[in-house]
Amino acid sequence: MCGVMGYVGDRACRDILFNGLKRLEYRGYDSAGIAVLDRDNVISLVKAKGKLDALQGKLEQLPSEATIGIGHTRWATHGKPATKNAHPHAIESIAIVHNGIIENYTDLKTGLEAGGVAFKSDTDTEVVLHLLSRELEEIKDTKKAIISLAKKLKGAFSLGLILPFEPEAVYVVKQGSPMAIGKGNGENLFASDVAALVDHTKKALFLEDGEFARITSDDVRVWDFNGKVIDRDFTEIEWSAESVEKRGYAHYMLKEIHEQSSVISKAVSKLVDESGKINTDALGLEGIELSRVKNIHILACGTAFISGMIARYAFESLAGMPTNVELASEFRYRKPVVDDTSLVIAVTQSGETMDTLESTKYAKSCGAQVYCLSNVPYSSISREADGLLLMDCGPEIGVASTKAFTAMVLYQYALAWGIATRVSGKVSVAESDLVSCLRTLPTKIDIALGQESKIRAIAEKYFESHNFLYVGRGAHFPLALEGALKLKEISYIHAEGYASGELKHGPIALIDKDMPIMALAPKDSYYEKTLSNIEQITARNGRVIGVGTEGDNKLADICDDVILVPAATIEVLQSIITVVPLQIFSYYMALLRGTDVDQPRNLAKSVTVE
């Protein structure tokens, strides 16, 4: 979860580190800190509870001439948000930042306390600090001490270290949590996300699990935990500094909602060639033996999981394969039936979601083939995959996923279509019909975005509500889950999504004038049944916001408020258009309630711990 960053070079690093942490604040914002070495090679440290604004006022306490340092934004795991628990943690000989969880920290801490160590924080990270100090005292060789340290730690740990007795270098260690090293001109940097590097370099080296590096201003050396030298090239970063800016929008989330038409347009350009044919070669299936596949398991968390629930309608109807959609946090703990006939599709925006990564590794150990759909190149999960498709959405900074969700739905539908054509040679949706639908999606998303002022006016009527129900049928049932998730993520309103037909099996007892309902009712094969469900709600004084398709007068007649969007010609892909007003509605509900849209409480963008 946490964001880590480091710098070594010939420039003053205080502001470089702070601005890099601003790029990483979506990863953690309970507290923050920066440690640098002054001219006398003494650690100078500032920390603050809360968001980075609280730290900014303390930057003047750091030596302005310092050219080596590390920084951290924290998402609390061990120890409440507090200045004492903020990173970096430091003693005279070491300063450390950490992303991850040390699972055996209690046993290690007990041993250190027995040896006379007094702890100043409640964190697992401070255990690493004192353990490394002891290793250095005994071994007196930094490289060997780090190897010895790493072999004693269990769990996930990406570490950044500055050592006053090596004032020309920073060290980084990776196990489980992401770590990228950026190559500059007379300077080098490291960070848990390339978003913090793009202001300074276009070249990055991505550490693998079980590796560590010594970084100076003009050199990067990498070893594994056995001391073997690792020779790896730097790669070109495709993201630009501009791509991680707000570009005039009040929040990243609003910017990313509005980017969806261009994201889908880019995806369509990748999937449809100049002759108007679906380019199945772009799906990354070359490493998958489809002849072996008898069943599909989609592994994901949160919004990605919901995209998989929508995609299941495509995999089963197009490819004719039994498809399970699995919560990655539960999958490997229930001994699932997975073997060499299984295709496991890991769906994750960041490619670093720990639950999804570990479940993917488990599936591989059972003989399954693994396919990854992600937005971040060089991620941990992509390196585990037999097949890989990058969504190319650009950085998604807002914690509540928007543009990645619509891309996930589109690419999974295309994947289902591509698998069907390669396995059976025929599908229920004609290629020309799919191409026609895909090409019109960006324009239809733009039209949906044009409803923003109307949606805000609707939000002004409901923003003081304490509860909400979202209902839908078919692929719009999981979309109801997504709408409810967005609302509770950023506005903190309790919201639940239900299949419309399930209302009468329990939730209808909740309906009264104080329970608003968002009813998803496109003109699809479920339309008449959905209208009947809405009638059941209004008969019990429920207030209904209907989301339907253009030209639907019936829906307007039975709902208190209505939002109409263009119709897609393929039912499953209608969800890509329908979700837009749900995203905008949740955004304005949060804005009107005064919550932090981009950094909602207790949440972080990339969940790199279990």
Describe this structure in words.
It is a single chain. The chain is an alpha/beta fold and 610 residues long. The chain has three domains: 242 residues, Glutamine Phosphoribosylpyrophosphate, subunit 1, domain 1 (4-Layer Sandwich), CATH 3.60.20; 196 residues, Rossmann fold, CATH 3.40.50.10490; 142 residues, Glucose-6-phosphate isomerase like protein, domain 1 (Rossmann fold). The protein is built from 18 helices and 25 strands. The model has no long low-confidence stretch (mean pLDDT 92).
Highest CATH level, the class of the largest domain: Alpha Beta
By DSSP (H or I, 4+ residues per run), the number of helices equals 18
Secondary structural class: alpha/beta
Beta-strand content estimate: 15-25%
Cα(first) to Cα(last) distance is 10 Å
Sketch the major β-sheet. 8 strands, antiparallel
Portion of residues within helices: 25-40%
By CATH, the superfamily of the largest domain comes out as: Aminohydrolase, N-terminal nucleophile (Ntn) domain
Please mark out the parts with pLDDT under 50 across 5 or more consecutive residues, or reply none: none
Roughly how many Å is the radius of gyration? 25 Å
Mean residue pLDDT: 92
The dominant shape is globular
Q: How many separate structural domains? A: 3
Oligomer: single chain
Overall strand count? 25
For the record, the CATH architecture of the largest domain stands as 4-Layer Sandwich
CATH topology of the largest domain: Glutamine Phosphoribosylpyrophosphate, subunit 1, domain 1
Q: How are strands sequenced across the largest beta sheet?
A: 3-2-4-1-10-9-11-15
